[in-house]
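Protein data:
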Amino acid sequence: MISKAFVAGLGLLALCGPAYPQMGSPGGGETQAIALHPANPQVIYAGAAKGLCKTTRGGLDNWPSTGLDHLGPRHIVLDPSNPDVIYTGAYEMGVYKSTNAAASWHPVNNGLTNGRIRGLAIDPSDGQTLYAGTDGGGVFKTTEGGTSWREVNRGLIDKTLRALVIDPRSPDTLYAATWHGVYKTTDGGEHWKANPEGLYDIDVRALAIDPIDSRIIYAASDPGGVYRSTDGGWTWTLGERPLIQHILSLAVDPHNPAHVYAGTKKGVFRSTDSADTFEVVGLQWSNRTWTLVFDDRTTPATLYYGGEGGVLKTTNGGRWWDVTGPQRK
């Protein structure tokens, strides 16, 4: 068994290799979703092949499953006013809800005619309002905590969503990544619009909003690089040296928003100049980095990785990655 608590980002393959593919993992396959409890940093939720997993010790308790076995949850959001209320989306299986901190679950799919969930977003000021982006059905909205859903697709020409994000400062504003560019709504999904002269007719796989200035948006195309908008998604520019990788996830450092991280099929990359240029910062052994999530309660902010290596974290910009669970034999 590996005994080192910390592993170098670039040297991780040498330490774990094929025999240690799930070092900090909830187990049973790749981790595709991570959600952090807003009040207790020791509580982390992870979507893995064996279900929705929860740690109450920062990953040191072997990530026990809380149910939804074999559904492979891909998206997890917590009610900001009551974090015991949790929603998770699973491809082909729709949305499930827990009201008791993941002790039990029940489906909330009334009116959700497409269960292939590609994105979940919750209103930060109203935990009853959620949006579900689907593969082929567009966007659905509930204002009743999942009791019922309705389509909100007016103007959304491409209904095959890749990602869905909500503006934390203006929650009626959302962005949808599709096969044909980025669409935006400013009225809670009632109307969507894309700029034909902007990021249009391009396969967009991931989105991220600057946590300080929400007019700044990042969008990753496959495999064309990371685009940046400074006017709320109307116009876009490609970085000076585009990151030509299969990008699966994006995250912006909440303490230093010029630092943008991209999760790819060949590791994690970082930009320190607002996505103009990128450098690799480790985990090059990973074939998939499905999610990158920042915890802004620490300084520097802690970045969590979810992917083929399970759940790992870094507190120094990717120079070292810490295992967040028991190391596997």
Residues 93 and 115 are 5 Å apart (CA to CA). The two ends are 5 Å apart (CA to CA). Helices lie at 12-16.
